[in-house]
Amino acid sequence: MKRATSWIFVGTFGRVLECWDRETHEYVAIKVVRSIRKYRDAAMIEIDVLNRLAENEKYRSLCVQIQRWFDYRNHICIVFEKLGPSLYDFLKRNRYQPFPVELVREFGRQLLESVAYMHELRLIHTDLKPENILLVSSEYIKVPSTKV
Fold first, then answer.
1. How far apart are the C-alpha atoms of 128 and 19, rounded to whole Å?
2. Do 98 and 38 share a structural domain?
3. CA nearest 67: which of 77, 57, 75?
4. Backbone dihedral angles phi then psi of residue 24, each to the nearest 5 degrees
5. Structure confidence by residue, pLDDT tens digits, 58-104
6. What's the total number of domains in the chain?
7. pLDDT tens across 9-18, in order?
8. What is the pLDDT of residue 2?
């Protein structure tokens, strides 16, 4: 991996970096978990859950995809596909403008499908919030104008 080109997110658990993967020649997101026992333990559980989610090809596009993980100097590093901004960042960037009803329906449909898939696997998402809902692409930077 090449050195990180930018920060995506910094939180209590650690940080997420945007990196260039020299093997695959693409940008990836790497979640670097702090070298603290409880965070490392939680990261290993997260890796197990992410691997279970990735098992069913039908729902791959609805849940973030783990590519691999590694331990670097006692930090758990989880490599993900690089996605766009979070729903929170999208809202903030658009000054919290209301979404058109069609867009709300589509977000809702996809969210319910992904949660239903998790429930089929007997998993419960315990931290659903706009910061944890990622858009597929950074191309979504403006709320589409509503027809009046």
1. 26
2. no
3. 77
4. -95, -10
5. 666 788 999 999 999 999 999 999 998 899 998 998 899 988 899 89
6. 2
7. 677 788 999 9
8. 44
Residue (of 64, 62, 135, 131) closest to 103 by Cα position: 135
Nearest-angstrom CA–CA distance, 51 and 143: 33
89 is catalytic: no
Residues 103, 144: Cα–Cα separation, whole Å: 9
Q: Which residue out of 48, 71, 89, 127 is catalytically annotated?
A: 127
Domain extent, residue 112, equals 87-132
* Token pair in block for residue 28: 């990836």
Q: Of 82, 87, 79, 86, which is closest to residue 104 (Cα–Cα)?
A: 87
Intra-chain end-to-end CA distance of the chain, in Å: 49
**Cβ contact 15:7 at 8 Å:** yes
Tokens 């969210």, located at residue: 111
For tokens 């867009």, what's the residue? 103
Q: Tell me the C-alpha distance between 80 and 39, whole Å.
A: 18
State whether 46 and 113 are in the same domain. Answer: no
Residues 6+ apart with CB under 8 A from 68: 79
- pTM for this entry: 0.82
